[in-house]
Amino acid sequence: MSPRDRTWVDLIAVADLEPGDATPVTLGTRELAVFDAKDGIFVSMARCTHGAANLCDGHFDGTFIECPLHQGLFDVRDGSARAAPARVPLRMLDARVENGMVQVLI
Asked: C-alpha angle 96/25/41, rounded to 5°?
């Protein structure tokens, strides 16, 4: 798929987000996490790269999400793993807010 074939898709209304927290969203068969972070809206795959726990169940401080299973830590701005046992970064999706909707590029 070339970059020209990618398109923005509505994911969730901004008004439906958990303010300052992580909101679980399903897109097709993909489980996603939408983070209402201090620095904007960010979207990643919802499962921890270490233990596959749903990150939306973890503690979110506005920048970092902690896995509820083994307390691995990720920076939601870029997906980087910041604390063991997490070593593999989160897969992040390009996201934007348009007309009150969080959109992802697929």
From this structure: 30
